[in-house]
Structures are given as structure tokens and as C-alpha cells.
Please model this.
Amino acid sequence: MRVGLVILPTDRWPEARRQWEWADGVGFHAAWTYDHVRWGGMPDGPWLAAVPVLAAASVVTTSIRLGTLVATPNFRHPVPLARDAIALDDLSSGRIDLGVGPGSEGPDATAVGGRPWSTSERIERFAEFLQILRAVLGGAPTDRTSLSLTHYACSDAPSTPGTVQSPLPLTVAAGGPRAMRLAAEFGQQWVTIGRPRVRETADSLLTSVRDQCELLDSTCGALGRAPSSLAKVLLWTPTEPAIDSADHFDELAAPYAALGFDQLVLHHPAQTGPYRGSVRAFETIAARYADPGPS
Model:
């Protein structure tokens, strides 16, 4: 199993640059950032936009994968998001993982002046969002995408100059049956936080995720897809207990490794916000779970 890290986009670039370079240097597999206008965990705190932060991170790192966790239709249209992802993929020399999800009724829901959507409408919109996103990202450099759907449309949306990665990986967030089907249909990776809008403990998270893994397996089977072909990513959301040693992390991670998870994503232990941990322990964790080099 690999270990990723969330770096919240809360800090001015001189400090943020050190965080991204540190994550790259100590051996984390991936560094993700949240894509919000306002984050519910720090609704009145400092917050910067995800895409330019990732653009800056892509040119000061060399090996770590970078991504959004997750971009949503709340304030994103799939065409400009696809264009941003193509540029980030180029800037990073093919190290972008685009995390996407249906969103929620959090602080982003009305940021651009609309009404909050129902859960059903969110999923309907997300399905169309993914359809356009995949078409633009997956197109040849000369391709143009034109689609007129119920909630989204595009006309001659370009794929030029094409992505460095083929395909550019989509990491799709899902918890319930309808979103899980979209993850199985469109994703290279599935990401979960356990039950949405529930403050999970370490124990309850494991129970929730076990149930979701069963749903994922049955959903993939119904679509004729091998469950093993969809990588599993867990975003660790409990704020307690703080992770203060690599051995402690091993204990927390072991049941998820047994469930077949490919990546467990922690939060940077020394940023402003609700998450805490030992920086030295995180360095040991990153080294212990680092990607093996060439044999």
C-alpha cells in the first residue's frame, strides 16, 4: 500500500512551497489538495484556489503525484476543468491524478449564486459532468467534443494538445450505490471518506469502508469490470487519535491493506486546521511505504 498526503491550500506560497517540496523529498506517493471556494473544516480560514497551487507545486516537485481531492460540479464546469487538467498534466510531466466527486450541500453549494441541489440532482449532474470530462480528456489532440445534455453542454471543446498520460487518471469519490456505479464506469481509482457527512471515528470508518468495498465489488461485477482494475484510495478523516508514530500508522493501515486498498491518504501534520500529528513520524511513514525503485 502507498501513502498520500493532503496539503491544504491555506498558506502563502513561501511556506506552501516548503510543504510540497518536503512531501516530495521524504517519499510520499501523492500529494493532494482540496478544491473548494470555502472548506467546511475552516469556513472562515485562509483558502487559496487548487489549480494554481497545483500548477506551482508541479514545477517545484519531481516525482510525487499531484491531484485534487476532489473537484466537484458545485462551482466547476467540466470543460474548463478538463482544460486545466490537461495543462497541469503537461506542467507536471504526467503526474496529475484528477480527483472528482458529486459534491455536497457544504459552503461551496451556493458560492456561484445558485440554489443547493438535491442529492439526486447532484448525482445526475455528476454523471453528465464525468461524460464530458472523459470525452475532452480522452480526445486526440485534434478532437473536438460537442454534447448537449440535460445539465451541461459543450460545443467544439478542444482536447489539444492532448494529455501526457493516457488516460489521465480520474479518481472518483463515491459512497452510495449511484455514485459507486459512476466510479466503476469512469474511474481509474475510487476514493472514499467513509459515510458522507458523518464524523467517522477510527472504528466506525473501518465498518463503513468494509460495507462500501462489498458494494464496489458487486457494482463492478454488474458492469463486467474486474474489481481489481479499479484502484482503491482511502482519505483518512478522523482527527483523533493523532498519528504520532509509524507503528501507530501501521496498526491503522493494516485492515485497509487487507481490504485491497492501494493508497491511504493522511493530512499534513503541521498545518493550520483540525489535523495534527508528528512530522518526524510522517517522515518515517513516507520512507517505510515509499514506492520501490527500479530493481
About this structure: The CA atoms of residues 55 and 222 lie 38 Å apart.
